[in-house]
Here is the input.
Amino acid sequence: MRKDLTIVKVGGKVVEEPESLARLIKDFSSIKGPKILVHGGGRSATAMATRLGIETKMVDGRRITDGAMLEVVTMVYAGLVNKNIVAGLQAHGQNALGMTGADMNIIKSHKRVKGDVDYGFVGDIDAVNHQDLSRLVLQDAVPVIAPLTHDGQGQMLNTNADTMASAVAAALSNEFKVTLVFCFEKKGVLSDPNDEESVISKITPDDFARLKAEKVITEGMIPKLDNGFDALNKGVFQIRITNPEGINTEDNSGTILLNT
Amino acid sequence: MRKDLTIVKVGGKVVEEPESLARLIKDFSSIKGPKILVHGGGRSATAMATRLGIETKMVDGRRITDGAMLEVVTMVYAGLVNKNIVAGLQAHGQNALGMTGADMNIIKSHKRVKGDVDYGFVGDIDAVNHQDLSRLVLQDAVPVIAPLTHDGQGQMLNTNADTMASAVAAALSNEFKVTLVFCFEKKGVLSDPNDEESVISKITPDDFARLKAEKVITEGMIPKLDNGFDALNKGVFQIRITNPEGINTEDNSGTILLNT
Here is the structure.
């Protein structure tokens, strides 16, 4: 029987405001068994870039990463945000280990091929080193993964945290029964964006198509669900979308994605 | 019989200029067997602080670390410098794993007690988690340690890299025959600072006392040698002071510290 493994991807304000970060750390620490945290940090990177006089350029919600911006995201994601979370988890007795894709070569990628847009130093994932990740979590380490990968030739690459979480979840699904939790500010996917309580409890691919057609699900939520359904198709046991209060897998709150 | 373990501490320009860093990475990669790299990054931190309009204050060569400076050193040491080294080592087939003292709780410290000087968020080391470090190196991981520790209560602390390297070397000496290499710009301790070739090949505690009295060894070199002799007294097999070209332990070049 496969062991349970919980992977939580957390981004947005949750990870960047001291109060909500403290709450997240507490709730994540309460999850039993092997677990991995994948975090973002885009707001902090944008704020640091501004302080350094570096302009932030986004296309379709994705950051253009030139050399100067790569320095900023490497500092902010792998340094500031990652170590804040690691030190916080250690204070809760969690054996947290901060990592990027370069550390132990856990996630290798290639620089995105230029299309209509040149995203710069952005990585598209090629391989997840599930052997070392599996060994770490079975030795009670808690990997805390920053949204950076490497190309194996010495180049760090900025990489989408949702995509990294999905890829890690899929790669570990042979060995583990993986629950992947996308954690953000809302209680789940809302049927009415103005009503915090209007959480849709379950979404199948058919529901997703309908909700997109009805414009209930729009913009930033679409790639998140695409990533989620993709992970489900690759053997991940369950995908849940919720806020920090809902991340403990025993609660099962938020929106659950189902294959059928 | 204890297995060999090489710990290299590298700082100064060596780690912060692309050309010398590339050389270091190549030479460090050529060291056989279990190994650990401990790095500094002070020049980069000072440069980043200046860009952010944060004033760098030093007392006796030690950085005063207020909250704003702690953010800078956390970003620069654990983010920029550490990940550059990790990605570079990975490109040489080394299973590098970037860490601070907080990661896997490998080095715990307490905030330095205020004396005449308030150093701020600076850590004095209490404990090295030699069990996890030993397990990592025996599993062929290469820890790359940034000069930061934590207090176990969620606080990151700026910590001297020489001291961290000595503490790690001492803590692992029960299990390993440890060679500790302090790597910097010079070929070793020089008897004539103006003659790069005037390397003193061996220094005993008696020699050290004499060389200090004769003002041959001064300033920044004194705490380095103090750290070195301290580590020797705690069971470290050999201490060597050299430049990147001399770090491969088979060459045995540079200055060697001896107990008698």
